Amino acid sequence: MDDIRYCAGRRRVLRFAGHNHPFMISNERPSPYGERPSTFGRQPYGDRPPRPHVEEDTLKTETIQIERKTFIFTLKENARGRFLRITEDVNGRRDNVIIPAPGLEDFRKIVDEMAKAAAEIPGKEP
After folding, report:
1. Which CATH architecture has domain 57-120?
2. Domain map of the chain by residue range?
3. Greatest C-alpha distance within the chain
């Protein structure tokens, strides 16, 4: 039985003397942290009430398409102040990053540094 090999991934293949024999390894294990409370039929964050709606004014919006991703930059304002919301949309799945307006200049500096480094640092050869 010295010809036993395992393949990566959830579905494993055991190889005996040139013959493949599939078997499954269960990922079902008890959590060391106990059971997670079910959210079925309840608020996702326990019994807290939902947050109240906050009025937001859109001041400016720009959109850019990079490869398969769409980025939407929206400058907004609400009672707490101004902020930039960056939305990444990939095939309908959206993620947001919110940067308060007082941090935009520092954010821009870091993005500028990263763009400069991406242009100057040579890429790895495949």
Report:
1. Roll (3.10)
2. 57-120
3. 71
